[in-house]
Write a structure and sequence with these properties.
about 170 residues; mainly alpha; transmembrane helix; transmembrane
């Protein structure tokens, strides 16, 4: 009867415990970096520079003989203004550079890209990320273009002598 209703607590396996301890240590050091904005960004710039050097060195080693994507310097870039805390932005940017850097070491992630696939990918991402905003615009009948948009002229002077009570 020891197995049923005993006083012994269940023993956790060492792998999840090690993962939990590692995550706690990681979160501890991440929390300690929060007030040190300048040093965090300097570290991110170092990671970005190492990533750029890695990409440059890989491109120097591999000569591309296939078609390249067209690029234009005249395209205007107008990003959305985000209301994102600086720390979360820094954290996401640093993770992205770190993951991109690690991915450069594996040829599995070196896939050829054809522009129609990029266009379809962009459309899918746009629809998925803008779905809530577009639904909000439709709900409140907001039309971003001024084609057929109602024009407001302001209050017109009332000539009738009616009262507020609605005689």
């Amino acid at each position: 009867m020891e197995g049923i209703g005993g006083d012994r607590a269940p023993v956790a396996s060492p792998l999840p415990q090690w993962g939990h301890d590692t995550w706690r240590m990681y979160q501890y050091y991440l929390d300690k970096t929060t007030p040190h904005t300048t040093y965090r960004w300097m570290g991110t710039l170092v990671i970005a520079a190492i990533y750029c050097l890695r990409v440059y060195s890989v491109q120097e080693l591999e000569i591309s003989d296939g078609p390249l994507l067209p690029t234009k310097g005249s395209d205007e870039f107008k990003p959305f203004i985000r209301r994102l805390p600086e720390f979360k932005f820094w954290y996401s940017m640093t993770k992205a550079f770190y993951i991109a850097f690690v991915m450069t070491f594996f040829s599995l992630f070196d896939v050829p890209v054809f522009w129609p696939i990029l266009l379809c990918y962009w459309i899918v991402l746009f629809v998925l990320t803008m779905r809530r905003q577009i639904a909000h615009m439709i709900k409140y009948k907001y039309i971003p273009l001024n084609i057929g948009k109602q024009k407001y002229t302001g209050k017109k002077a009332s000539t009738s002598g009616s009262s507020l009570c609605g005689d």
